[in-house]
Structures are given as C-alpha cells and as structure tokens.
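re: that chain from earlier
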Amino acid sequence: MLDFKPVTIEDKDTILPFFNKNTFRNCDFSFSNIFCWKHAYNTTYVVEDNWLYIRFQTKNDKPGYLFPLTSHQMTFFPCEEGLRRAINRIMQDAEKRNEEIRLYAITREMFKQIEQAMPGKFTYQTDRAWFEYLYRSEDLISLIGKPYQSKRNHINKFKRTYQDWEYLPITRTIIPDCLELYRRWCSENGDCSDGSLVEEHLATEKAFAEYEKLGLIGGALRVKGEIVAYSYGQALTADTFGVHAEKSLYEIDGGFTMMNQQFAEHNCANYAYINREEDLGIASLRKAKESYHPEFLLEKGVVSIKN
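^ sequence. v structure.
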C-alpha cells in the first residue's frame, strides 16, 4: 500500500518539481489549488521511485487518484513502461484498500497515454461539468471584434463611471482589503457559511494566508481608495496561466469584465493561453464563461477498469 500523507504548505518544494515538468494544461496540477482545496477533498500524496501519486475523496465519496507524474527523464525504460508501472502501483494500492480504481481529471491526452501503456484495459467517461475553459490571452486582453462588443461596452462604462479607478498587484498590504471584499461578496450571495461556499471561503482564506509561499500572482481594482475586485492564479505550464479566483462587488457596474481584462493584460500577456477552469455544471457560470468565446474546452473525465 502506498504511504499517502496530507498535503501541507511545506510540501510545495517536494511536489512542485513534478508540476513544473508537466505539460498538461488542466488546473488540477496547480499546487495552490491542491493545497487550498485539500479540506474539501482530503487530498494526500506520496512520492515513490520518482513518481508523484495524489489521492483524494470526491463529493460522491468515491476515492480516486490523479494521473501519476514522474520527475525523471525516463532514461532507464520507455515512457510507456514507466507509466504502466505507475498505474499498476495505483491498482495495487486501490486493491489493498478494497476500492475500485478511479483516475479523475483525466484529459484525452492523458487517456491516450494510458491506452498506449495498457491497451484496452480501461474505460473513459467524460463529464461536461468539469471541462476547463481555455482562452487565447490576446483575445482576453484586446477584446477585439464583434463577439466582444458587449465586453468593450462594459469596460467603457466602467471607465466613465469610475474615473479614479486603478489596477494594482496584490501584496500583503492590500490582502486584508481583498478579504473584506470577499466577505462583502459573501453577503451579496446569501452568506458564505452555507453550502459549497463554505469550502470556497476556507480556500480563499488559505490562499491569502499563504499567498507568498504559494507563489500566487494577483491583481485588484481600487476605486476611491477601496478594493472592489480582485483576481489571482499561477502558471500551469510554460504556455498557460491558470486563473483560480475572480471576485467583484455586483454594485460595481462592469467590475467583473474590467477585472478580467486588466488581469489578463497585466499578468497573462506572456502566456499563449489562459485557463479559467470549470463551470461545475452551473448554468449562469457556463453562460459567463462561454460569453468570452474560449479557444477550446479541455475535456476531462474518469478512467476506470473495463468490466
């Protein structure tokens, strides 16, 4: 059985080298995401023979694993053989726990690699609610063309209404103001002590408490000396930046649109793509994400043993 242990902030230096060599663009391979949401998924990890294994519990109480990652260059055996050994190790661990093997957040690229390593052994079932939205950074920065006319209108109205606005990077100095904004946002959304917002509230507090250690990059909008919107995230791969959170007061007309554009311009211009994560099957969130016209959806699903 693999000797899994809970993820702590001190584990960043152990886990990050695996993520830094990762070329998958999904947000699941972000240390800040794993650390900040570990309370919701009971996330644990272990490193064995230069492979990183991550195990967690999903909402439906079915435990599973992420795609295993290696830190070496596969000089001693082919990539397929290495992945086959890693997946067999996961299968052994699941069997000893008397659980069915499940690999979650698997992209089509990952499943292709699994199929090459272990042909015909697994099934792959996608889930639209977990597809991630990837945009060209230049699109979110420039908002050029007819599809983005309404976004430009929102931004122009924001600039006319709040002529003294400013964009500034998130630092320890303004983090208390960002937390106050989040508390006000909670009040606007019916209290963050209820339902799924409880978990998001805890994740937000962890993110700001360990902001520097997590290596998060963020920005905020300030109007008349008050923080009215913020966003933060971190790089997922060499060409993709992941946006983990974005909040704005609803009373600020165009706040979300302005925050989105300014964050892309100031923090994501050096990346080809911006990953704005899943819509979780929430209709309003899906509509909002689709309105920015993603370059593509990163399909994700569950891998399990064929019956």
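The CA atoms of residues 231 and 246 lie 4 Å apart.
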